[in-house]
């Protein structure tokens, strides 16, 4: 890109990645290990649920769909991060940037909607157990899973199309580890007041989602505490503890990333929050759903035995 104000930008440059001579390989190998762990861990959960008849119920169906989405959610950003760590050209084309934003946020939206579905599923199972089988039918589970993905991908499409029409003719440096909506919008050679609207829309969507899930779990906890036997309370808590942990990790990192409004963080803290959001949260999910779940551990053992 030339320095003239009218020169068209054809690519964006990431400024947060260290150069090869500054030891970027020290970050490359841990990130590569984490990415491989995320992919293999979520694949094991997905196939364990699909191949074990004992796990063919709504709760595990939603977990398997969530694991499948996690694979692609991390694939939308981490491979490009790895490429930037070992390349002198730490750049991405505008088309590549738009695609990364679309798939990353669409998959994230789908996961958020699926987490709402999982919370409602646990709410019905614990608060209305006698009608659970009648309400959560296999057909409804398929519709909810498909609906989460379809809605997650459709809701962002108009926004990405709008961004693709914006002129980019000035600075082309993205001060982030992946293409995100607000950093990219701030580079557009036009009125950037839409960034404020972006912040408000994201904040409202996140807050509504968190409130729905939080209220579901508050109601669940109240019902569990009324169970007379300690064994019954323990069993009820165990069925939703994993979902609650994933919810806290996922939306905790999302809130730090997008509920900042006009607040600005130091670059190091900003990068750390982005890593938590894109890398660490997906890293813990397979651990939570496998190591803390006896049925899942047994299903994964069976998977290896069949292999």
SSE layout and pairing:
Layout: E1 11-14, H1 25-51, H2 58-75, H3 78-85, E2 91-93, H4 94-127, H5 132-135, H6 138-154, H7 157-164, E3 173-174, H8 181-185, H9 194-225, H10 230-258, H11 267-291, H12 294-306
Parallel strand pairs: 1-3
Antiparallel strand pairs: 1-2
Helix pairs in contact: 1-2, 1-3, 1-11, 1-12, 2-4, 2-11, 4-6, 4-7, 4-9, 4-10, 9-10, 10-11
What is the name of the CATH topology? Rhopdopsin 7-helix transmembrane proteins
What is the C-level CATH assignment? Mainly Alpha
Count of DSSP helices?
12
Structural class: mainly alpha
End-to-end CA span: 53 Å
- How much helical structure, as a percent, in the residues? over 70%
The low-confidence parts are: 1-6
- Overall radius of gyration: 21 Å
Instruction: Provide mean pLDDT, rounded.
Output: 85
Q: Could you name the CATH homologous superfamily?
A: Rhodopsin 7-helix transmembrane proteins
Main beta sheet: 3 strands, mixed
List SSEs in N-to-C order: EHHHEHHHHEHHHHH
The tally of domains stands at: 1
Tell me, briefly, the overall form. Answer: globular
């Amino acid at each position: 890109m030339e320095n003239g104000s009218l020169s068209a930008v054809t690519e964006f440059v990431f400024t947060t990645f260290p150069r090869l001579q500054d030891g970027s390989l020290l970050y490359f190998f841990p990130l590569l290990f984490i990415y491989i762990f995320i992919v293999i861990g979520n694949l094991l959960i997905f196939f364990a649920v699909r191949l074990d008849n004992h796990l063919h119920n709504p709760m595990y169906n939603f977990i398997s769909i969530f694991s499948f989405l996690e694979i692609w959610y991390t694939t939308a950003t981490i491979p490009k991060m790895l490429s930037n760590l070992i390349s002198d050209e730490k750049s991405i084309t505008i088309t590549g940037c738009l695609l990364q934003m679309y798939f990353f946020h669409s998959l994230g939206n789908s996961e958020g909607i699926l987490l709402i579905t999982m919370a409602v599923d646990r709410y019905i199972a614990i608060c209305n157990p006698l009608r659970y089988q009648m309400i959560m039918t296999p057909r409804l589970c398929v519709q909810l899973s498909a609906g989460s993905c379809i809605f997650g991908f459709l809701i962002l499409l108009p926004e990405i199309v709008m961004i693709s029409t914006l002129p980019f003719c000035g600075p082309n440096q993205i001060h982030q580890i992946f293409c995100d909506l607000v950093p990219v919008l701030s580079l557009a050679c036009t009125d950037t007041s839409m960034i404020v609207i972006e912040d408000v829309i994201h904040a409202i969507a996140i807050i509504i989602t968190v409130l729905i899930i939080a209220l579901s779990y508050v109601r669940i906890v109240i019902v569990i505490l009324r169970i007379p036997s300690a064994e019954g309370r323990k069993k009820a808590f165990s069925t939703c503890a994993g979902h609650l942990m994933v919810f806290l990790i996922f939306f905790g990192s999302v809130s730090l990333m997008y509920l900042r409004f006009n607040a600005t963080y130091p670059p190091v803290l900003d990068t750390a929050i982005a890593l938590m959001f894109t890398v660490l949260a997906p890293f813990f999910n397979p651990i939570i759903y496998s190591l803390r779940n006896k049925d899942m551990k047994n299903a994964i053992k069976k998977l290896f035995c069949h292999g």
